[in-house]
């Protein structure tokens, strides 16, 4: 099963997999449709895009699918390849992460490995994950608790402390204290750097 919000792209991947002798049983255009389609068809492998033009993502679809079928085989396919995003997909339970500019044969290999219950890594992805393990994870996701990370994302989107306080129904003083702590912990103070860091780690859209 494939899920991508770009029909032409998805059709291209379907044709590539069909040429490799694989049957594409369904093509979903949204995360919610992907979860429903998986429940209906129970495919051997689900290939999910990460970013959709909705509030939900492929990660949300995967969590839904795995909640109902912990043995689900999932391959993520994305044009975004930030280190923290790749790491999160494997932590979630995916068997492979493949970039959209990969060779069709690589996608087919990823699907075969997933079907066999094995992890699959493109060489460049494996190298980056190994480097990440050696030097340590310095992403905002690894350094901030859930509340601080939520506030960091709103800061990165350009909201002021007052606007964040209103959004989260907290006092401006509380937001001010947390935002200052976030800046010091991450070592970023200028708005441009905060936004750049959030984009780099896949927390907000470029």
Automatic annotation (TrEMBL):
Any Pfam family the entry gives: GerE
HTH luxR-type domain: residues covered: 137-202
Superkingdom field: Bacteria
Species for this entry: Telluria antibiotica
Limits of the Response regulatory domain: 1-115
Modified positions (4-aspartylphosphate) in chain numbering: 49
Keyword Phosphoprotein attributed: yes
Keywords, in A-Z order: DNA-binding, Phosphoprotein
Protein name in the entry: Response regulator transcription factor
InterPro entries for the chain: CheY-like_superfamily (IPR011006), NreC/VraR/RcsB-like_REC (IPR058245), Sig_transdc_resp-reg_C-effctor (IPR016032), Sig_transdc_resp-reg_receiver (IPR001789), Tscrpt_reg_LuxR_C (IPR000792), WalR-like (IPR039420)
CDD domains in the record: LuxR_C_like, REC_NarL-like
